[in-house]
Specification:
This protein has about 150 residues and is of the alpha/beta class. Helices cover about 25% and strands about 35% of the residues. It is built from two helices and eight strands. It has an eight-stranded mixed sheet, with no helix packed on it.
């Protein structure tokens, strides 16, 4: 009888630890920074649709940075995303590097994917990536479709 109680208690403890582990992995808390040394880049997007601070920045699926802030430019109505990029890439990102907001996994977390260009000059501390693609927002697509279907039936 005592061994059953101990077994159930151990099983419950293991389950609780597994839930805490999954919560930490999904939240990204354990991935605060790429490295101690980083440089800053900015990018403007029409719509960031759920992109948050600490979201990953990747090149070819490899994490190379993180989003440090998401602000709005009140003059142009655009989102300004600031990213901390691993210092090892400081002289490797061409000025025509592109940035797009992508959806990660089944939970739909947003992140930034960088695609390298072919320019000879490279981005420097504080530069802005000009070739950007905003997030795909399913609600906007459905709204446009419903509006078009409603307009065709008249």
């Amino acid at each position: 009888m005592r061994t059953i109680e101990i077994s159930v208690g151990a099983f419950m403890l293991a389950g609780a630890l597994a839930l805490v582990f999954l919560a930490v992995r999904v939240s990204g808390i354990n991935q605060m920074g790429v490295s101690a040394e980083s440089f800053t880049l900015k990018a403007r997007f029409e719509d960031v649709a759920g992109l948050t601070t600490r979201a990953k920045v990747s090149i070819a699926g490899v994490r190379v940075g993180r989003v440090t802030s998401v602000d709005v430019d009140p003059d142009y109505g655009q989102a300004i995303v600031t990213m901390a990029i691993d210092q090892r890439l400081a002289s490797k990102l061409p000025t025509d590097t592109g940035a797009k907001i992508l959806t990660e996994g089944i939970l739909g977390g947003k992140y930034i994917g960088l695609s390298l260009g072919g320019a000879d000059e490279t981005l420097k501390e504080g530069d802005e990536i000009t070739d950007t693609q905003s997030a795909f927002v399913l609600e906007n697509l459905i709204g446009d479709l419903v509006t078009r279907m409603g307009g065709d039936s008249k």
